[in-house]
Design a protein that fits this description.
Helix 6 runs antiparallel to helix 7 and helix 9 (210-241) packs antiparallel against helix 10. The longest helix is centred in the middle third of the chain and has 32 residues, at 210-241. The termini are far apart. The strands form two sheets. This protein has a two-stranded antiparallel ribbon with strand order 1-2. It folds into two domains: 2-58, no CATH class; 73-359, Rhopdopsin 7-helix transmembrane proteins, CATH 1.20.1070. It has 13 helices and four strands. 28% of the residues are buried. A hairpin with a 5-residue loop joins strand 1 (19-20) and strand 2. The protein is an all-alpha fold and 380 residues long. The chain crosses the membrane at residues 84-108, 120-141, 147-172, 218-239, 251-271, 283-301, 328-350.
Length: 380
């Protein structure tokens, strides 16, 4: 493609070419002409690279003159290739298994957790994977709703960041109690955490203060608020301009990216700092956070990766779906698979017998009673 662009570069009076003098003798190009010609080639190559990057962001490297339009669900399902049928069947089975495990989680949470606010927070977090899985499955059956499915899932994840911090506050019975407990055992706030620790590995530790902890909480809270505004604005742009709104949507994503990164950063600062407190060990709170964090990371990275692959031409011009929608079909397929593994891992690592969240579970009661009896014993 670079060669094609070089051939299409406009000619100039300085171009390296064979010229003849008045006598008819061949005149050799001067060193200046050679230098200018080299600069011109470099300029053309730079322009070609820039144009390629712009195309990857806003258009496609493919020239699909007869590209398929996004069909309605009924039309799409009646003309499925074998690979799409296999993907839909497998995704449906896996999503139903995820939903079944999700229902089991909800039953255990409803029965074995006493405090209503704690139960509500954990229900929201436990529903993340089944909810995202079902939305992705719907988008696989109905290609025209993939954008809505992605926006709602992303908003849910953003709210989950705030909920995981609310759960932390609930464990310690509020902000002031948390700060008091942190002050007893800790002296600094860990700020060398993802996503900025890789870029700034030598960030200093900050003195622990209630005001700074509150700032971290506000960093997390603003993320779902900004994401809600971005979701509504994205829906307006998409339904009003359809494909022509692609560039405004990307600009909006770029503008709201600092808000998302700040929310993730604030969450990591708080969780990394309190992870050294012994009170959290029995709850397996850090396990809950790591599962949510990794799930959100994979979900967030998939969208730009599959979008890039589609624009690069990895999915061709598409058959029953255009290239972009074909890539998002398979992106949703992988999201369904990931959601199942997230739910399965949560089932194994967060069993009621292993977490103090389930305070009404028989195993938790026996552990608590044994601790109380050991505490009440008087030495002889």
């Amino acid at each position: 493609m670079v060669e094609e662009r070089l051939l299409s570069c406009p000619t100039s009076s300085f171009e390296y070419a064979d010229v003849t003098n008045a006598v008819g003798e061949e005149k050799k190009p001067s060193a200046v002409n050679n230098y200018l010609h080299t600069l011109r080639i470099n300029d053309c190559a730079t322009m070609t690279l820039f144009d390629t990057l712009v195309k990857l962001l806003t258009d496609s490297l493919l020239n699909c003159t007869n590209a398929a339009e996004i069909p309605h669900a009924s039309e799409f399902l009646s003309h499925l290739p074998t690979s799409f049928v296999f993907g839909l069947v497998l995704a449906t089975i896996v999503s139903m298994a995820t939903a079944a495990l999700g229902v089991l989680h909800i039953l255990y949470i409803s029965v074995y957790i006493t405090q209503s606010d704690r139960r509500l927070f954990i229900l929201f977090l436990a529903s993340t994977a089944p909810f995202v899985s079902l939305l992705s499955l719907v988008a696989m059956y109905m290609p025209r709703v993939w954008f809505l499915s992605h926006l709602i899932s992303f908003l849910y994840f953003s709210i989950a960041l705030w909920v995981i911090i609310c759960l932390l506050m609930q464990i310690f019975e509020g902000h002031h109690s948390l700060v008091s407990k942190m002050s007893e055992h800790l002296q600094h706030i860990e700020v060398a955490t993802p996503p900025f620790c890789c870029v700034f590995p030598c960030l200093p530790k900050i003195q622990l203060e209630s005001r700074k902890v509150r700032i971290c909480e506000w960093m997390v809270l603003q993320a779902p608020c900004v994401r809600l505004f971005a979701t509504l604005a994205s829906l307006v742009i998409y339904f009003e301009y359809q494909d022509k709104g692609l560039i405004p949507l990307k600009v909006l994503d770029f503008i709201t990216l600092p808000s998302l990164l700040a929310g993730i950063y604030g969450t990591h600062i708080l969780v990394t700092t309190v992870s050294r407190l012994d009170e959290l060990i029995s709850y397996r709170y850090i396990v809950v956070f790591r599962i949510l964090d990794l799930f959100f990371m994979f979900f967030g990275l998939q969208q730009p990766v599959f979008d890039f692959l589609a624009r690069y031409g990895a999915f061709g011009c598409g058959t029953v779906l255009p290239a972009i929608e074909t890539s998002f079909f398979w992106k949703n397929f992988f999201t369904v698979i990931e959601s199942f593994f997230v739910t399965l891992i949560s089932t194994i690592l967060l069993q009621p017998s292993k977490s103090s969240f389930f305070d009404k579970h028989p195993s938790c009661r026996s552990i608590t009673s044994s601790r109380n009896s050991h505490t009440n014993e008087t030495p002889i």
